[in-house]
Each structure stands twice: as C-alpha cells, then as structure tokens.
User: Fold Bifunctional transcriptional activator/DNA repair protein Ada from Pacificimonas pallii.
Amino acid sequence: MLLTEFDDDTLYQALTDRDPAFEGKAWVCVTSTGIFCRLTCPARNPLRKNVIFETSLQACVDSGFRPCKRCRPLDAPDHPVIGPLLRMLDSEPQRRWREDDVVELGLDPSTIRRVFRRHFGMTFLQVARARRLGSAAGKLAAEEKVIDAQLDAGYESGSGFRAAIKKILGTPPTRFRGQGVLSADWIETPIGPMLAIADEHVLHLLEFNDRKTLPAEIERLRERQGKPVIMARTEPHKRIAECLADYFAGTAGLPPLPVGDHGTAFQKSVWAELVRIPLGETRSYAGLAKALGNTGAVRAVARANGANQLALLFPCHRVIGSDGSLTGYAGGLWRKKWLLQHEQRMAAKG
Assistant:
C-alpha cells in the first residue's frame, strides 16, 4: 500500500492484534501463500517480510492474490442481498455467472452492481470470477491436474484454456517446423509468478505474469524471432530460476546473464545504464538522461524504460520521479515498493 493514512507498521500491528477497528479499511496480501485476508483473520500471522497491505479488495484480486478460506474477505453474510448470492457462489463454485443469471433470480442487475461495489469495490460478477479463478489457481498451486483446475475455473472442455494459450503464444508450432522454437516457462517468486522466454542459449523475456502488455510483448517477440513459443524449460530458464531464488532470498544480486539482442541503440544504452544503478539505490529519469549525456531526453529515457522486457535483470524498478515518487511500473507500484525495500535491506547487510 503506497498512499494511506496508515503506514505498513501500523497495519502489521493491527494484523498482529486482530484489531477490528481496521475492518474494511485495509487487507493483507501474503506473498508466501498467494492469499489475502482481513486484518482480523484467525490464521497464524505471516512474517512481516511476506506481507503487502492494500486498501481495496479489487487491488488484492488484481495483484493475483486469492481470498482466504478462513476469514473469507469477500463475504458479507448478514446482508439481505449479498449473503444469499455469496452462498450461491459457495454452492456452485465452478459456475460462470452472467448478468442474465441475476435477472432470473428476480434481482435488478444495476442494484446488485451498486450494492456489491459499495461493500467490496467490485461487482457481483467480478467477485464470482475472482472466486472461481482463485480456486483454480489454488488447485494448480497444489499441483493438481490441469484438467481439474480447468473444470474448477468453469470450463467444460479444454477449448477455453487452449484458446487463451494460443492467443498468447501465437501460431501453433507445426507452422514453423524446422525453424526452431522459443521456450516459455513459469518461475515462482514471493511477489508473483514470472514468465521467462528463452531459446537454448539466451533469455529473451522475463516479466511478471499480470503485466497487461504481456500478450502483445510475446506476439512481438514471436514475430521478431520468426519462431513459435511453446511451454518448455531450457538451460537459461534453469539459470535465471536459480539466480532469482538467491535474489529473493536476499543472498545475492542478479548477475549479468546472456540475453537476446533486442531494442534500438538508444534503448540499449538506457538499459545498460539501469544495470549500473547500485543495489539499494535509485535514479531519476532526469538523472539517467544526464548520465547518457542528453539532458533533454527525459521522456525518451522513460519510454525506453517502459520498453524493457527483462524485468529485474535490467532493473527499471530503480528509476523514480525527480520528486522521489515511485511513478509508474508495469509490474505494479506495490511490487516496485517491495523490490526497492528488499534491495535496501540487502544493501544494508552488505
């Protein structure tokens, strides 16, 4: 949480005390489990380093966290309209709800939207989807079969999943037979999964899974390389996974690794300058432009920063506004804050 009347230390103390005064004002996202809870959750308190606080349920869901099954943050069972609808979600967790379903229950969709937004900051259909996908994510995290997760998400066949994968990964591999492939693999981190795409020798892309431009980035990479993208693991995947494990454990920074030759000459110069920012420090866009010998290139530097497809390796999260504000970060400002604090702690330990 970046802007609130309560700081994180106050909220963590409220979590420890299970203080009901904070009910509905903030929620805790636990990076080690991928769930979010009320501050009054009866579960064992997570470690301070593993929590992120958010001021809305929508922010928790958008960040990829699943609702806790003990404190049930998406519940308001005593409300005359919300309670019955949430119980229906419980009774049919795989159902894909639509507005017509609400009408068939004799309810006014606009009224239901207002009521749910007032209580949760989300519509009923958004709550239903969050629960459904959260349940599916939980099954996958528990290493259950993909078909089970697929059915839990409300797909009666694999066509929905296959269509989504095809949309992201592009043309089927048979269209490129004999031309080689790019391999994609997921790497788990404490702040969400990352997608890594590599060939047999170098890494071409490393992004958090919920980056909105990720499908477009994959498509551009596929077209630029003239190769399909399949799900597989290569040696570069193994190397970056090992390095990320050390980085998130706080035992080592990320070393230079073999990466693909992408970007314009100017973009490459900006990315090279990013790597020169020491661990635990930050630079402004203006500072980067000055370091490149072109003080008038602030906006161009910002655009190059945003075009970076190798998150963490080219540490664009270390660039902040001239006034000290975190400014934009495609992986989410909450991640940017977490990464900077993590690196500051690492630097303090030497």
Summary: Confidence is low (pLDDT under 50) at residues 137-178. The first strand starts at residue 27 and ends at 30.
